[in-house]
Amino acid sequence: MMFRHAIIRSHAPARAATRLPPSVSSSLSSLSSSLPSRSWSQSLQSSSSIRCFASSSSDARPSRNVVIVGGIRLPFAQTSTIYQKEMAVDLQRLAITGLLAQTALPKSAIDYVVCGNVIQEVRTSNIAREAAINAGLPSSIGAHTIAQACISANAAICTGAEKILTGHADLVLAGGVETFSDVPIRLTRPIRQKLIGLPKAMKKGGPLGGVRHMLRGLKAKHIGLETPAIANYTTGEVIGVSSDKLSAKFGISRQEQDEFTVRSHSMAQQAHDAGWYDDEIVPYKGSRVENGIKGDSTVESVAKLRPAFVKPHGTHTAANSSFLTDGASMSLLMTESKAKELGMQPLAYLRDWSFRACDPWEELLLGPTYCTSQLLQRNSMQMGDVGVWEIHEAFAGQILSNLSAMASDDFAQRNLGGHKVGDIDMDKLNIKGGSLAVGHPFGATGSRLVTTASRRLQDEQQRFALVAACADGGLGHACLLERYDG
To answer: Which residues are catalytic?
Structure first.
């Protein structure tokens, strides 16, 4: 099977504001009703849809279909709550052991481990390797860690797929982890530099020389701590501010954002209550509860919160923004032949993926639109061909801005070569809740999205799923899954 990979390009910023598609606004305004009924579309039967995955006759290498066999996550939790005493490496270790226990996978079958992690502990900078060893995997199994902001786990999964496609591995564990309960907090740079030079100063002048070294040139502003900032390094802008500005550009109202937020919490709570996540979440200390879900949220209650980023008239609040989250996830990828050899039933094929970049000053979180457009065009598909959508909800305004861009003729003409992506059927989008409700551990979310999408394909008997996510730096990702029927 021949797979074609994405080319990272920059794009000019969109200049015209675009209203939210009527279909989205209509869906959001009906929150008083229960969970929307899903449309069970027929599987694609046209030869053009199937041909997009056919192998090239000139390719002498045997086909190596990549399949998603399973995936799990620890319960995602608000920071400084249940995982307060755990290091990130411990959470990733628990995700690995949880996946092994769920799938009964022999450790000897694993060829490689790839994990995403954004805010790194210096002692475990290659957290994939440390977690793998501490999970009891053979020391001969290689591992590396990827940092690509909020799409780190997506990058880990696609890296694993590339190893499989090139014949460098038959079976890969890929996932990610994040904890905000134990972030690296540093002294200011002037103090750090003085401490680095302190041993030399003391060697020359003793303790008194050390004191003189530390005090020489020291200013009051140098005394303090540096904590990780959720801001873009190049632009210097806080991500929430960027998203708030993007929402203003696309005309996304505060009410629309609050309605989408309540939708996410309501659907996540219903999925948990129905036990849908029982096969996806590995209990931590006997519990699968994800404590960020507010199933009793109402539009009226979240409307009371004040703007959190652009004050006083911004539209982003603590409620319609994803919260700081601790958690870990892991996905199991292998060749289709390896799954048959091990007697495992895959959930989905990983068919194609896209990583693209856009202008971080104007379109920081608009990557999903560009990636979705590229993926659909490359595989000769339309929006209606996709029966399951899982799109990362960093902010309600961010995802609604992307939906608006996808549905905009003007945006398509300016940025997508005239190829409009189209309107997403809201009854197919994030119907088990999303990051606004379950949370967003930066390094782990991508694996959660792929696992949920793969399981939904089987549950809803849809043919294709599309996963998409934005990331700091103006990066974006999308991948295409196909239900496994073998």
So the answer is: 150, 470
